[in-house]
Write a structure and sequence with these properties.
2 helices; about 75% helix; about 0% strand; single chain
């Protein structure tokens, strides 16, 4: 494809250089093997970050649910205390 495409493009009026196949990679570029290795490393890093975020999220959900339960328990105790106070006030009259 890389050899044929310049010919086709030239026939359609595009001014391009001939394709040159080189055995050496261009300056600063990565070989396919190096690129795949780099992408795999990035994938592993992102998966680790995702796992950490999921773990942190689950811990926060657990803490939130405990706070909700604690709040409900405190409201129940406050109502009981209020009824006790009202009962004592009615009986002390």
């Amino acid at each position: 494809m890389h050899r044929i495409m310049p010919i086709i493009l030239k026939k359609h009026g595009f001014n391009i250089d001939e394709y040159e196949e080189t055995k050496e990679k261009k300056q600063g570029g990565l070989s396919a093997k190096e690129y795949k290795k780099k992408m795999e490393q990035e994938k592993e890093e992102l998966n680790k970050k995702l796992e950490d975020m999921v773990k942190e999220y689950n811990e926060l959900v657990d803490r939130y649910n405990k706070l909700i339960d604690d709040k409900a328990e405190l409201e129940r105790k406050n109502k009981e205390k209020a009824y006790e106070v009202m009962y004592q006030q009615e009986h002390s009259r």
